[in-house]
Structure formats: C-alpha cells, structure tokens
Design brief:
Chain lengths: 407, 239, 307, 315
Amino acid sequence: MSKKLSALTMMLIVLFSSVFFLTSCKGKEEKPAEPIKFGGIWPLGDITGDQAAKAAQLVVDELNANGGLMGRPVELIVIDSELNPEKGAAAVERLATVEKVDFFVGGMSSGVHLGQIPALKKYKKVTMWTGAASSTAETAVGEGQDWYFHLHPWDYNQGNSYVEGWDDIAAKFSNISIDRWFLAYEEGPFGSASFAATQTLFSDMEIDGEAFQSAALGGGDYTAVLQRAKDYNPDVFIWAGYAADALPIMEQAKAVNFTPPLFIGAPPGWPSDFGDSALAENVTLYGMWAPSISKVSAVSKKFQDAYEAKYGETPATYFAPLGYTSIEIIAKAVEAAGSVETEAVIKALKAIQYESPLGETISFSPSNVISNQGFRNQKILQWQNGNQEVIWPFEFATAEPAYPFTR
Amino acid sequence: MSELRTENLTISFGGLTATDNVNFNIKSGEIVGIIGPNGAGKTTLINLIAGIYYPTSGKIWLDDKDISQIPAHERSALGIGRTFQLIHPLEGLTVLQNVMTGFLFAQKMGLKQAREEARKLCRTLELTGLDRATGEINILETKKMEIAKALATNPKVMFLDEVMAGLNSTETLEAIDIVKQIAAERNLAVGVVEHVMGVITKLTHSVIVLDTGRIIAAGPYEDVAQNERVKSAYLGGGV
Amino acid sequence: MNKKKIYTIAGISAALILSVILLIIRPTILVYGIQRAGIYAAIALPMALVLGIVHIVNLAHGEMMMVAAYLSYFICTTFGIDPLVAAIPTGIIMFFLGLIIFKTSIAHTLEAPELNQLILTFGVAMVLSQSVNLIATSQPRKISLDYVSASATIGDVSFGIYDFIFPVLAALFLAVLIYFLKKTRLGKAASAVGQNPRGARIVGINVDLTYTIIFSLASMIIGVFGSFFITKFSIFPAVGGTFTMKSFALVAMAGIGNLPMVIGASLVLGLAESLVMSVPHGAGWSPMIFFGLIIIVILSRSFRSKQ
Amino acid sequence: MNSTVQKNKTWPVIFGILGVIVMILPFFSGPYIQSIGRTVITYMILAISWDMLIRSGQLSFGLAGFFGLGSYAAVLSAVNLHFNPFISIVFAALVAGLIAFLVGAVVLRLRGMYFAITTLALGEIFRIIIHNWTSLTGGPNGKLLPKLAFDGASIPTYAMMVLFALIIIALSEYFKRSRIHYALTAIRDNEIVAKSSGINIYKYLLIAFTVTAAIQGAAGAGFAQLYGFVTPESSFNANYTLIPLAMTLLGGMYSTWGPVIGAVLLGVLGEFLKLYIPYGHLVVYGIIIILVLLFMPWGIVGMAGRLLKKGESHE
C-alpha cells in the first residue's frame, strides 16, 4: 500500500470522525446561568417561515430586555425545515438531544409536519405549533397528547368558520346572496381539502368546483376553470390557491369577463403588492390576520410596531403574529406556573386566556382529535383601497362589506 | 463440418438497396474474401449475417437452420463470430475481460471457466498484459484482442472485417499467419473483408466481389481480377 | 426525408382537423390551447437551440428564465417602464449573463460525460434560484398591467386576447432563429457545428466560439421571454423549475435539432391540455396528458426509426 | 487513459472499511446523528441503485417515481392487508419491480435522453394516478401508517437502515463481480459489440431496470416506515431523483463506493451548512456541486484512483 494511499485514508477517517464529533459535541458546553431554550423549526427560505422566526425572536428579545423569564435568560434556536419532512424531523431530534431545548415551536406545511410528528411524540415536550392545517396531521398526532398545542386552525375549523361567517353576513346584509357557490381549488392538498370541506359544510347550498394547477406548482393558467365558473354563474366564487395565483387570476377573470357578486380569494398569504392593483378592489379574502387589525386591536398594533421597528419591514403573512404567539403564550404559561416542568406548563397553558396579536383572545380546548386547539376562527376580509379590511367577525370589523363585486 | 449459405439476401434502407439478392456460401476450412469498392455493401452483408440488421427479404442458412430472423446474440451463440471494421473495444473492461465476454455469454460459461479459457486463448494468440485497459494496448494487440473476442464465441463461421487495416507490413504478415493457423486448427469457415489485395491473395481460397450490393463476380482471386466488370467497378468506385 | 415530410404533413393536417372540430364545438378551447402552446413554444425554442447545437441539456434553463423575469421586474419597477419595453435591456443583460455562465462553468465540462453537464447545470440552477430567494425572498411578485386583461367578445363568448402575444412571440423567435441559422455566416457555421462538431472543427470553424455565441443567444431569447413572462405570471424563486422540464419534454417530442417541430409539439400539447381541462373535473388529469403525450410521441418515434 | 476500468483491489477494501466505520459511528452518538444517518442511507441506497443502472449506460430519472410507488405500496399494504413493516418493504420492492418489469418491455427500447425523459414522465404518471385515486390512496392528503417500524425507536430503526444499506451494497457488489457486470459494461460501451459477443441486451437491461426499481421501491417503503406517512407531494419529490444523482457524481460513477461516499459527504454537508449558514446554505451547496464538477469531473473515487496511479508510478 502506498504512502499516499494511507495518508489519504487517514485524512478521510479524520474528516469523517471530526464531522461526527463536531455535530454531537456542539451545545454540550454549559453556561453558568442556564437559559430557557425554545427550539423553533420553520422553513427559513419561505417568507412565512422567515417572518414567523423573526417574530419569535422578537418575543425572545423583549423577554430578555425585561430580565428574562423567572430570572433566567431566554434563548431561541431556529433550524430550517427546508420544507422537507426528513430535514424537519432531523431538526426535532437535534433540538431535543443536542440543543436540549425546553419547548418546541414552529411549523408551516402539513407535509413537513407529518414527518415530524413521530419524533415530537418521542420527546413529548411542550410543543406549540403554528402550521399544518391538514386534519391528516391531526389524526397522526392522535388523542390524549396533552403536550401538543396547535395554534393554526385545522381545515375543518376554517370551513366551519366560513359557514358561520357567511351566515352572519347574509343575516345582517339582506342584499347579499350566498346560495350558489363555485370553488376553484388548486389540485394539491391545500386546495382539495378546502373543496372537500366546503362541499360538506355548505351541503344545503348549490355548490360546484373545479381544480386548477397553481402557479406555485408550475401552473398559472386559470382560463379553463374561470370559464367553467362563468358558465355556472355562481353567487359566490372562491379560489383556493397560493399567493402566486392572486393577481393573475384577477387579470384572467377580467379577460374572460367574469364578475361574480362575491369574488373570494383564499390563499394562505397574499403578495405584498396585491393591494396596489386596481383589480384588488372589493376582492373578499379569508385570513387569520391583516395589518389593518391594529386599528381595532391594541395587542396587534403593539406587535406590528415592534416588528417594524426591529426589522424595518411590515409583516406580510399571518405566520408572523403566529410565530410571536407561539413563544409569548408559552412564556406567559411558564410565568404563571413558575416552572418549566412539562406538567406544570401544560396545566398553565390549559388555563390561559391569551390576548393574541391576531386580534382575538384564545384559550385551548379539544378539537376533533387533539386536546389543545388554539385558534379556530378565520376572518373574512376585503380589499378596500389597497388595504385588507376586516368585515367579519363583526367585533373586529374595520369596514362594511362592499357588494356586489364590480370592476 | 458447417456451412453458411445466403439465399437472395436483400436489405434496403429507405429507397437504397444496400444488399441486393446476394447468394453465396462458405464451408468449414474455407477462407473467402469479400471485396469490392467503398460502399459496395461488404460490412452490411456481415451485419446482416451477424444479425445487426434483419433482411428485407431472403434467407440465411447456417447448416440446416434459417437464422435470418433470430436476434444477434443468439446467432453469436449458434456460431457466427465477427470482428469490427471500426474497432470498438469495450473500454470499461480490461483486455482479458473483453475476451471473456464471448465465453461468458455466447458459450454460457461460468466466470471462472471463462477466465481460464480466455487466458488460454490469449496465450495461443501471444497476447499478454491482459490486465491492462483497452486504451493502453497497441494496434497489433488490439487486433489480436478483436480476433480473440470473435473466437471466444466459439464460432463455426467467422467474419474478419478489415482486421489488417492499420497494421504495418510485418504485423500484417504475422496477422495473416495467425488467421490461417486458426482457421485450419478450428476448421473454421472464414469470411475476410480487406482492401489490401496482397492480403486477399495470400489469405483466401476464393473471393466474391460486391458492387452496389450485388455480387458481380466470384471465384479464385486471380480469375476474378481479370473480370472486366470488376475492373470497371473499381474504376467507377474510385479505388 | 420523404417520409419525414409525410409525417409532418400528416401531423399538421391532423392538428388542423382537430382545431376545426374544436372551433365548432367550443371555440375557447382552441383559443386557450393556442395561447398555451405559444408559451410552451417560446420557452422551449431556446432550449432546442442549445440542445441542437451545443448538445447540452441545460437544467438551469427555467432558472435562467426566472432570473430574467426578476431582472425585468426590477428594471420595470425602478425605471417605471413597461415589461415589453424592458424586454430589450433584459435580453441584452441575459446575453452577457449567459456568456458568463457558459464561460465560467459549462464550457469546462463539454469534454466530460453528458451527465456531468447535467449535474453542473443542476448546481447552477440551485445557485440561481437560492440566490434570488435570498435577495428577493419567496414572496411572489407581479406587476399589475391593464392591457393583459384585454378581452374580445364573439357572440356570447368572451376570452382574453392579450395572450395571443405568446404565439406571436414564439413565431418571431422561430423566424429569427431560422433566418439566423440559414442566412447568416455565423448561423450556418453554427448549424454545421450542431450536425458535426468534429467535422466543423476540421473545416476551420471556431467551435468553442460558436458554442459560446449560441448559448448566449439562447440566454438572450430566454431574457426576452422572461420580460413577457412577468406580464402574465407571478414570479417567485421557484417559478422557473417546471419550465426546464416542460421545455426539455417538448424538445424531446419535437426531435433534437428540429426547431419548427417545437411549435408543432407545443400546439399538440397546448390543444390537448386545453381540451382535457374543459371537461368538467378533468383538470386533475391534465398533467397526465402532458406526460402521456411525451411517452407516446417518444415511443412511436423509436418504433418508426427501428423500421 | 481510461477511468472506468478499476483494476486496483485495495481501494474497494479501504472504502469498504471507511463506509462501515461511518455507518457504525452513529450507534455511539445520539438520535440526531442517527436521524441524519437514516436520511443519508435512504439517499445512499437510491444513489447506489441509480449507479447500478447507469453502469449499463441508461440514465434514469425515474427514481422518485419508483420511490413514491414503493412508499405507497408499503403504507397501503400495511393499512389494508396488515403487513408487518418488513413484509411491507419486501412487498413494495416487488410491486415496484413488477411495474418496472412490465413497463421495461417498452421503455428499454429507448436510449439516452429519450430513456431519461420517459422514466421521468413515468414517475409523474404514477404520481398523478395516486394523486387522483383518492378512494385508495387518500388523494392529495395522503395516508398515515398506523404503526411505525420499531415504534420509531432511534437505534433499532437506524440498525434496520444499516442492514438495508449493507444488503444493497452487497447486491451492488454482486452486480460488479458477476457476469452481470460484463454484460452491463459491454452494453454501455457498445451494444453491437455486446450483441456479437452473445449478450442478450434486452434481458440484462431488464434485469438491471427491474432490480434497481425494486431497490428504489424498497427505499420508499423504508421512508414510509420511518416517518409513518405518504403524500403525493413528499413521496414523489423530485429531490429523490436529483440528490442521489448529484451524490453519485460527486462520489464517482460505476462503483459501489462512489455513491456511498457521495451520499455521506453531501448528506452531512447539507446538514452542516444549514447549522452554520441558516440563510443561504443551499446557495453554498449549489456552489460546491459546481466546483466539484469543474475540478473533479470523475468524482472522488475516480480522483483517488488517479492520484493513486500517479503515486505508484513515482515509486
């Protein structure tokens, strides 16, 4: 065997071993005043995860500026899920065993979450999840998991919320008719679940739907589905897709001359410049939060101001206030419990009444499967003069609905 | 004792007839030259017999079996061996492994036996350095390897397609001796495509002359060389 | 050659007959089908050019289009000009960006196995999309334009007419490319290189330079298309990925080196997809059309060539 | 000079020892490293299977398709037929292999880019069918596995994956050392020559295609058993095609150890970069791929072989 060969072998061995030692040793050095650790997992490459992580860091900074939590500093370690289940699961393992965090926060995308649930179940640390709407994920978590707290509404929560909302609106504004529905849904899990939920929930009404390929997944041509909708002539037209579909759908709807009385968009987030377009006017939307809520909620205003002051940008998705909530609600529970022990924190969380930056005050209660569900309600909003105004629930309403939708 | 016989063998590509009603035969122990100008259809004829192409019409008989419709790898196993005009060593394999392929697949031997047989065959051809890559051997060695590869399939009929091309005169003489010796030892029927007429005269018992896919003459080379049609074909073909 | 012509004629007439039937049953299917085909063809043509002459499969094709779209977007928002005007500067910038990408990376792998170019361009695609993600975030962007909603009404059918700009653009690209390849000295040299690089080198054509120019030219076309792209679509860092695949598939359907057939393949695909999508609840299966057609076309071609 | 002939006998041994060390190390580490290890092995298996087919010159883009098919076969068989985890993995391999065998009859007529694009299209067709066949597959929302292999315990599942990897490595080495190696290499180098040596091209391509598809299906089943769910989006993710390809090229093609080393390096590197560069680590990852291809076009194994050759000739 040549010298070069053995040298190379040695080098490779050293390289590999050092890789493993580095990864396993990092984080073992203990600091004198041991911080309370939060482990966050979001897709940092996506604006939702990015802003959620930033908002979460904001709470941590605020807590530390006020002397920490129970006199201990607070630390947030965020790992990128890369929107990949395996990476998301590995992040859970790392946060639990290497970083030894006290709490898990994070979440965006049901697919990633499905991959993480087995790992989360292994550690049973208090977990405050900001994402995953698919009820498949709820089934995967299963019953009797007291440590699991889910902030984001499940798909059926959202559906129920719309039924309630539209019944309220139709009752209050007699000119608004909601008898005939057409749902254009992107063909992925997000859109299909929306369609399935809407179909069951609005079963007493006339309802039809058609799938389309979202621009986010390589599509972007909506003419066929719009044509179908137009032929159906609905009172309410909803599209459930992604932000990338928002403006092109409006443009193509105009091109095919499709103007339903209610034009609703239900993407998880809107492009920041959507309001700048004239086509946005009077488009109704579903969402958990909009910057305009700061007009009616002091908590939301405080959050929004702090976020803008720290990062110099407006939070564009509801994942920002959700990320904020995920940390702050645990921090409040820890204070109430006076301990970071899982049992005590769970008890405190179950009892908490939390004024969230999304507007409403929430508490946890069982949903279909899991024990601790936070938010259930969606809001119905409308683009008016370039802003998202809340039209339902009426307690947060910032404007009256404009009806019918015209151009 | 074997015989290969073609019967009105014809193939056309698009509108072009590359082999046109060719009838010829070779018997064990015979060495037949296949000559003709460039583009006469010599290599096409070999490809037809080896099964690279299937004929448009006509038949190929190996002894009493019509092999014209069976796939190339089966013909190889039945006893049709060949070398290639443009040499294509299997670059991913060593010299020995190249030779082993025929034993392994055409003769369906096991690895160990194939290795021994390949070594033995190479020894008879005086081919050494068998663990080298095919890119590392010289021309004569490459040609020997090609012949060994063809022999490894245990052919009854073997076609050598310009196997002497690129060799210098001493190497050519050596190669001629090898071919003659092999053909005699194994009682092979051999078809030889060559451009160098010196090789043809030294090596073959008889020749067939192809022009534009057709046989225009057949017989001992000395006779055929006097044939007017052959002369004009070569002149027309520009050789 | 003769047979090829027959197949071409048969294909075109089949498409025509289908079109007429569609026009009678449901005119919008035809309209949207042609518009879709225009988009497909316009983005597939530069890939066909690169594949036909430089013989590389550029997996960063769609990502380059995405970069061009962002460039155009920023040019538009910074200088307040229309994307269709921004197509010119974008095209020029993309020419040089293509030149840089080619010279610094792809050119060094031309001698290596085909696969290496594949992975290399995969790396380039990754760098491009992730860099844009860092700079511009994953937030989708779209310039709001009034004219894209331009509409025509025939009888009781209304449809968008702006999208006809894509078939026009595709035809323009094709015309320019064919003129370039058939009439200019450089283009003729490039065709020769495409058919036989070794031979071209022997007769004294500077093959490396030709490759560079063709790749840059294709990048320029991608750049121009990128500007048109933002008029209709939202852009975000991952927007280009699917176009690599679609372009590649279309080129494979058309046959490598056959630029006009790219239009034919796009038409077949656009119309077929449009037809399936007009069937109620057929949209979920429309991607099947895409992949099914690719397989059918490729297989039938392979059978034909075997005979 | 030809890089594809491997005559050196010491390298495989060294890579083998190294590989075993790398695979054993995580047993002495925590669940995090083991979870990385499981992912690396999943990709390693895919990379080896891809290499096993490319040895015949056929470039497959169908990895994600068979991977997804396998993961669905595993979950659906576990849910509906109550197969235990191991049987479900074997079943998935059989399903993927059988489908490959059937489509292989047609697809294996194609070569080069046409073969590549057709395998990609096939994978997409599998995905679309599963996406739309909601009654069986759960449609876009996917399906859950009622019970994970070993209840998801870290060390046994890692051991299962190591065993899986060893089986595939052994299979790949068998391919390297048996007559299949001669057939596939000959087909890659020159099909006409291969035929003339009596090689039944179609038969050997079909063997390679079926076996590698079965491996990919088994890898998908392994994934499903580890994470307990399938969805069309995650199970048919294009990453399962592209990343193994990049790993093989980095490590070196036409060998068992190239994919192994490539998978370990890229897998560990990806995770590392993420920890130190939370934003933009994928840019760095891409740059590394480019640099490797520009400066080490034969991969690490090929490069090492060359270095070694030079070293020997100087002694």
